[in-house]
């Protein structure tokens, strides 16, 4: 696999690290193809039950590599083809039954928003900034931004981001529902960008380990039901839920946890 993405697996957690720090992890062709390969492998492996997305360097993802676009892309058809490659990775993550957490320190902009929105739970730093900025260079949203941003924050707020050169502060992004948590550097540590990035990564890993310590399969199926709901009618969604909870009930995780919960409830009633 290309060094543009670092891919490791540790006790059920796959870590996918965007690794073009000198370009703020902006996507070029090498990263696009590495992304497609890594995401497909992560969701297909039986030994992966949670995924953590993070990034090397001072920022999470600045979207597309504009310098590379200007120097190597001969036409809009080239841009479209590359977007389709990245979209395959986005689809792999968002339609899978594996929960995904993002550690999005620093700046996330342009198509980087789409990468962040691939996650089901996003953690950023107190000094993080998030925005669209496509129109600043005459381009339009891609990498699922127009598809997922409005679902995450509502249509009117999504329009505020794509129609202005606004960067949301971390607290605003949390208030809008774009991200789940904001963390700073460890207490007593140096309040610099590197320390904050480490704190963001550490908290994101805690989230992934929380899933792994419980019924990771149930978390993954819950994510799948929510993520894929727009493709179904209400009646179809109810049937999908009924089938999913029935399948979950037959798993070893559920059998043990249901028995433990029932026993504890019975003891409280008896007491």
UniProtKB/TrEMBL annotation:
* Pfam families the record matches: ECH_1
Q: Where is the signal peptide?
A: none
What Gene3D superfamilies does this protein map onto? 2-enoyl-CoA Hydratase, Chain A, domain 1
Instruction: Output the superkingdom of the source species.
Output: Bacteria
Q: What protein am I looking at?
A: Enoyl-CoA hydratase/isomerase family protein
Lineage start? Bacteria, Bacillati, Actinomycetota, Actinomycetes, Micrococcales
């Amino acid at each position: 696999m290309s060094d543009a993405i670092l891919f490791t697996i540790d006790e059920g957690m796959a870590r996918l690290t965007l690794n073009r720090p000198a370009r703020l992890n902006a996507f070029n062709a090498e990263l696009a193809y590495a992304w497609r390969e890594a995401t497909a492998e992560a969701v297909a492996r039986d030994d992966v039950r949670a995924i953590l997305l993070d990034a090397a360097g001072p920022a999470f993802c600045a979207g597309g590599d504009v310098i590379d676009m200007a120097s190597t892309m001969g036409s809009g058809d080239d841009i479209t083809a590359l977007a389709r490659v990245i979209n395959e990775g986005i689809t792999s993550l968002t339609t899978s039954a594996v929960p995904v957490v993002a550690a999005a320190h620093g700046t996330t902009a342009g198509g980087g928003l789409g990468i962040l929105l691939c996650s089901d739970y996003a953690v950023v730093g107190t000094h993080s900034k998030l925005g669209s900025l496509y129109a600043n260079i005459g381009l339009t949203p891609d990498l699922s931004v127009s598809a997922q941003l409005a679902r995450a924050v509502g249509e009117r707020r999504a329009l505020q981001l794509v129609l202005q050169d606004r960067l949301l502060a971390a607290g605003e992004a949390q208030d809008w529902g774009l991200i789940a948590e904001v963390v700073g550097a460890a207490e007593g540590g140096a309040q610099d960008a590197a320390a904050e990035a480490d704190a963001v990564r550490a908290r994101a890993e805690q989230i992934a380990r929380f899933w792994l310590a419980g019924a990771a399969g149930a978390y993954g199926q819950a994510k799948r039901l929510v993520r894929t709901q727009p493709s179904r009618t209400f009646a179809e969604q109810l049937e999908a839920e009924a089938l999913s909870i029935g399948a979950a009930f037959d798993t070893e995780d559920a059998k043990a946890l249901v028995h433990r919960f029932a026993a504890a409830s019975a003891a409280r009633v008896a007491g």
